[in-house]
Design goal:
mainly alpha, 0% strand, elongated
């Protein structure tokens, strides 16, 4: 489906790669094609999930403990720097 020339194209016979209006027959065919491909997609997802190297429970617990400890230490560091800078600014403002 060709589109009519508009002033922005300056006569260069511009055709949009995606027409503004797609007929209902084309929409239906595309949807049916997608529906037919869906079971294949699910099969591929399942096969890919079998290839994943899943962590053990112990590895997950250890990683969680490390994240919590690092978060607490980082929070304490930021609190200390904030407290120090707040006191320095207060002493200048007095």
């Amino acid at each position: 489906m060709a589109r009519a020339l508009v002033s922005k194209t300056r006569g260069w016979a511009f055709d949009s790669p995606r027409a503004c209006l797609i007929g209902p027959e084309k929409k239906g065919k595309r949807m049916i094609g997608k529906i037919k491909k869906f079971p294949k997609f699910l099969g591929e997802v399942q096969s890919e999930l079998k290839k994943v190297n899943w962590s053990t429970r112990e590895e997950l617990i250890n990683a969680t403990v490390v994240v919590i400890i690092v978060s607490v230490l980082f929070t304490a560091y930021i609190y200390g720097v904030d407290l120090l800078l707040s006191n320095i600014i207060r002493s200048f403002l007095k």
